[in-house]
């Protein structure tokens, strides 16, 4: 119990420090100070900065995937659930990151050491979306499979973060892609 509380304290502190300084400029001392711990105590929980970064990414993805699951269970249209999912998965993190002085570094692809964690989170998101899309019986057929539609949505969302001018632009791009991938129901 104490170890879990300490771990969360470290992860919360590390996220704040990474957002403030970026990965390269952040030191174990910075994380320890932000968490209110000594460096030796920090090293008892994590062997180094990469391990902390990976844990921050994994915890963030787990939290977001839990939120996505909750959204997908809401009694809304598929389109409305997808809009809410991408608001939580893409727009909110994009907005938070855009406020960071280290946004350019943190948004880059320089984290190969965490690649498996990012890939796992995306695969889990695709699976959740594919299940929700497959459960919707109003999709036009023939057409792409639910899995193909989910992969298109997630892939597009990743790319949109690269080209979006701001949060509203990202939100609009995502809404358009959702409409293209999962057309609105015909009211007839």
What does this structure look like?
There is one protein chain. By secondary structure, this protein is an all-alpha fold. It has a domain at 52-181: Orthogonal Bundle (Tetracycline Repressor, domain 2), CATH 1.10.357. 76% of the residues lie in helices and 0% in strands. The protein is built from nine helices and no strands. The chain is elongated and about 60 Å long. The mean pLDDT is 91.
Looking at the overall shape, the CATH architecture of the domain at 52-181 is Orthogonal Bundle
- The name of the CATH superfamily of the domain at 52-181 reads Tetracycline Repressor, domain 2
Coarse morphology:
elongated
How much is the average pLDDT?
Answer: 91
A few lines on this structure:
With 188 residues, this protein is an all-alpha fold. It has 9 helices and no strands.
List keywords for this structure.
188 residues, mainly alpha, Tetracycline Repressor, domain 2, 9 helices, elongated
SSE order and pairing:
Elements: H1 2-25, H2 28-35, H3 39-45, H4 49-72, H5 78-98, H6 103-107, H7 115-134, H8 146-163, H9 167-181
Helix pairs in contact: 1-2, 1-4, 2-3, 4-5, 4-7, 5-9, 7-8, 8-9
